[in-house]
Specification:
By secondary structure, this protein is mostly helical. It is built from 7 helices and 2 strands, in the order H-H-E-E-H-H-H-H-H. The chain folds into 2 domains: about 60 residues; about 120 residues.
Length: about 200
């Protein structure tokens, strides 16, 4: 019985939409035909007036949509700033600490690793809700690289995506520039980008 009702509603909707579309088409056709049958000067004036009205209406609607988008973005901005700041404070510092080497060996700090795991568990849910598509993509690539020294470059990509999401320009900021600000040895990033071992 429920399927029959759904099918009936769908059929009625399709009929109403089809009839409405046909009536609208005929009406527009009738109006255009009527305008074109008038004097050339009058027809041109009417068409220009209609075009002006359409452009004005479209401009107003577009402006309202853009204004609404800006309002939504501004209302989300404080939460995004808080979220991204936590990434820099916790994740970036933790990753750099874990990739740092002492006497040629990586530092294995279980407390740092556990803290990072807890942080990423919470951050993942938050970034799904608040992050832009580019931030989410960069975050996924960063998480997928695993225990690899080049994770530093993925963090840099994430930082660039974060800046873009917050409305900042990355113009003139090269790959590796942002993460280099956290390092005591910025040349390490340059070597990774150029894919050549340090001498």
């Amino acid at each position: 019985m429920r399927k029959f009702k759904t099918a009936l509603i769908l059929a009625i909707t399709l009929v109403v939409v089809s009839v409405s579309g046909y009536v609208l088409f005929r009406l527009v056709h009738f109006v255009i035909k009527g305008i074109l049958s008038l004097n050339a000067n009058i027809s041109a004036a009417i068409i220009a007036a209609i075009a002006t009205v359409i452009v004005s209406v479209v401009s107003i609607i577009y402006g309202q949509l853009k204004s609404k988008e800006r309002d939504i973005a501004e209302s989300h901005r404080p939460k995004k700033i808080e979220l991204y700041k936590s990434f820099m404070d916790e994740a970036v510092v933790g990753i750099l600490r874990m990739t740092k080497k002492k006497d040629g060996k990586s530092i294995d700090d279980k407390d740092v690793q556990e803290r990072m795991e807890d942080f990423f568990f919470k951050f993942t849910g938050d970034v799904i809700v608040w992050g832009s598509p580019q931030v989410i993509k960069s975050y996924r690539e960063f998480r997928n690289i695993g225990n690899n020294p080049e994770i530093i470059l993925k963090v840099d990509d994430m930082l660039r995506a974060i800046r873009k999401d917050l409305g900042h320009s990355n113009r003139r900021i090269k790959k590796g520039d942002l993460i280099s600000l956290f390092l005591t040895d910025p040349e390490k990033v340059k070597d990774m980008i150029e894919k050549k071992p340090r001498t």
